[in-house]
Design goal:
binds adenosine-5'-triphosphate, 6-stranded antiparallel β-sheet, binds magnesium ion, Heat Shock Protein 90, alpha+beta, 2 domains, 13 strands, 450 residues
């Protein structure tokens, strides 16, 4: 037997295989290289490696780059046992099995027909032990002629099984890790899906609750004017009927005059209350701002404000309030100018009605400047009464007003919020201090979403 300088070539080869393991090369490539490394150490040897399944009984080929593929395929799925060729027996016994002649050895009685036609006559097999003395498979050296191992051959299985054990265990750990990773990922995905479903459900419930509150509020608000109108109408009908009844017996002038006065009063009550109901219905309609009904176009913000402000300035002047502007030049938007103008009008109107209700000499400042992420920041500030801290978080809720019965329905800021976060796709923030004033800050995408 010629052993090709085992010390140097084998050492270099072992380093190469270890490097492949460290670099995380595929197990198949590592085992193939390992088989070739051993084959390079001893003439005429053909190496194979069988892997033992988790069931501890079945083996399948892990590598055998120089053996006939048909022979390896025939070994796939064989069961280990006391008389199962060299490999099956070596794994079963947990020790090296040397078969010097496959044709005559009883261990190969059931298998030599698989090997001999491929010209394989000797097979020495050594079990591969992993951590905890667990057998991972076997390493085999085949020869084309009957043969017993020589002194030099004995060290090769040691090298092969040692490196193979490292490679196989690492690959198994990695696939276990990958399994854990997949499992974790699946868990995270499932949790995320459950969370977003719960979130959607919450949003839906929130919307339903808001809708419920809105409907209840609408009913409550309309109840008073409709109730008043009903009383006035019923009263008018009663009086008319009574008057008609007294026509037969002769009608006094004073009776007729009283009726006219009562009818006039009832008419005024009816008109006032129905007007109030009509105003309420008009503001309810604003609550649902439908982008489909609003025109979208490109516009310059300064031009929109130039159109919007003159009538507001007239109203403000009547109350001794000035409106100042600080608009960055060239602010272009592609959005919904109608709803934006409506929101700004509500905000200015609120300053006039609430911030400066008891004071004159107030100032409203409207500022606009570009913001990050292609947004536009528009603020409406006043130096008036400010909003009390307990009220501040509720100002966007429908029917929240500090002027009930004095014309306030508490829908203005609800509408503004709907416009800003809905059709304009932005957000609104409030900064307010009692006695110092309030600032409503709108951050809007310069180009509204489709
Ligand atoms: N600039 C402001 N200064 C002080 N208080 C304000 C200001 N803007 C809003 N508020 C407070 O927020 C409440 C809610 O405003 P919102 O516009 O929703 O309703 P409203 O003005 O009372 O009624 P509506 O707008 O329906 O006529 C107001 O009643 C007021 O108390
Ligand atoms: Mg208002």
């Amino acid at each position: 037997m010629i052993v090709k300088s085992p010390s140097n070539t084998a050492r270099d080869g072992q380093h190469r295989v270890l490097e492949m393991i460290a670099r995380g090369a595929a197990l198949q490539d590592i085992l193939d290289s390992l088989m070739r490394l051993i084959e390079a150490q001893s003439e005429d040897v053909l190496c194979s490696l069988m892997l033992l399944d988790d069931d501890g009984r079945t083996v399948h080929p892990g590598a055998g780059p120089s053996l006939p593929p048909a022979f390896l395929a025939a070994l796939d799925g064989l069961t280990i046992g006391p008389c199962a060729g060299s490999c099956g027996t070596a794994i079963h016994r947990g020790e090296t099995v040397i078969v010097t002649d496959i044709l005559s050895d009883p261990l190969w009685a059931d298998y030599h027909a698989l090997a001999v036609p491929h010209g394989l006559r000797a097979c020495w097999s050594t079990p591969i032990y992993g951590d905890g003395q667990r057998i991972l498979g076997s390493f085999a050296m085949y020869y084309r002629a009957p043969k017993a191992p020589g002194e030099d051959d004995l060290c090769l299985p040691g090298i092969a099984t040692h490196l193979a054990a490292i490679a196989i265990e690492r690959a198994r750990r990695e696939s276990e890790l990958a399994l854990h990773r997949d499992h974790l990922q699946a868990l995270v995905e499932a949790r995320t899906a459950a969370l977003s479903q719960a979130q959607e459900e919450l949003v839906r419930r929130d919307r339903l609750a808001a809708l419920g509150a809105l409907v209840a509020g609408v009913a409550h608000e309309l109840n008073t004017p409709i109730g008043n109108s009903l009383i006035a109408a019923t009263c008018l009908a009663d009086k008319t009927r009574a008057l008609a009844g007294s026509v037969e017996g002769g009608l006094r002038r004073s009776q007729l005059a009283r009726f006219f006065a009562q009818a006039d009063e009832a008419g005024q009550i009816l008109a006032r209350n129905l007007q109030r109901a009509a105003r309420l219905v008009a503001s309810f309609k604003q609550v649902a701002v439908d982008p489909g009904n609003s025109e979208r176009r490109a516009f310059m913000l300064c031009e929109l404000l130039a159109e919007l402000l003159p009538p507001l300035r007239v109203l403000a002047r009547q109350r001794g309030v000035v409106i100042e502007t600080d608009i960055a030049p060239g602010l272009a938007m592609d959005s919904y100018p109608g709803p934006l103008a409506e929101a700004l009008t509500h905000l200015v109107d609120n300053c006039l009605v609430h911030a400066f209700a008891d004071t004159a000499d107030g100032a409203i400042v409207i500022r606009a400047a570009p913001a990050i992420d292609a947004s536009v920041r528009i603020s409406v500030s006043d130096n008036g009464a400010g909003i009390a801290p307990p009220l501040a978080p509720r100002v966007y809720d429908p029917f929240v007003t500090t002027r009930p019965g004095a014309g306030g329905s508490g829908l203005g800021l609800h509408v503004v919020h709907n416009i800003v976060s809905g059709v304009l796709g932005g957000r609104i923030e409030l900064d307010s201090a009692l006695g110092k004033g309030s600032t409503f800050r709108l951050t809007l995408p310069a180009i509204a979403g489709a």
